[in-house]
Amino acid sequence: MMSGLRIAALFAAYSAVGFGGEYAVGLLGQEADVDQRYFTVDVEPVVDVAVHVDVDHEVVVDVQMRSSDACSFEADQSLSLAASLSEALAINVGSGDLRIEGVAGLDEVRAVGRLCASDEELFDNLGLTLEETRQGIILSAHYPEQRNWRGNRKASIDLTVQVPLGMVTDVDDSSGDMTITGTGDLRIDDSSGNIDVSAIEGFVRIDDSSGGIEVRDVMGDVSIEDGSGGIDVDDVRGSVLLDDGSGGIRVSEVGLDVVVEDDGSGSIRVENVGGDFRVDDDGSGSISHSGVEGEVSIPQDKKRKRRRG
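Request: output the structure for the sequence above.
Response:
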């Protein structure tokens, strides 16, 4: 057995291209009684680092590097613009998380963005603009041209927006998780990432490619067209209309009708509906319902799986 082991961890190839920061190095024990061990080392750009580790057993060494500093260049940008409920807000964003909050008594739109990029060239092309137009207020996130991104380069903007409570809002987003609460009529066009919507003083319309969707506490109707990912809808005063490619569907506490126009795969569960419940076309997965006050219409081959309330 070895009483000690010197590990020469050469980080020059990584640090030469700017991957400085804190890295995790893992030691995997070859014997059953040797615990997996981790420690961290700080790596500055263009620096070779030698790590000395004393162990009591012979080990197989797996050196894994994980940068804890994903943003080599980062900054916060804040914008604000006077606004009223008679105006609508359009938000056009790309990569990054988005949070929108309606605030009672607020008379402006406030936006705070965390700009993050792997290198200075990308960072210099990141930013936000907030402007008033004839169509309403427009908040836009600007990114470097995609063709300039190579290898592990990245650029993103995490955005937090506060609006007057009940403001009509239209969101066009490409990727990242989204949380929205307290707006008026809400339209979302999204490519990927989870969507969480609540306390909406109007209708909700969502067109989404992938990612889970949760909608709750909506004064108006809810319409969702989704490619993949689970859908969970709860506490809607109006009606619910769904078109889903794959993923489970759960709908509860709806004042009017629930209609599933098309469902590719995944189970459908509906509870406590004040109007009718209808499934026009369903691929695979069970359909169950309870507490439906109106008529129920589901495909003939799924009727044996239903449950009435």
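The chain is about 5% helix and 55% strand.
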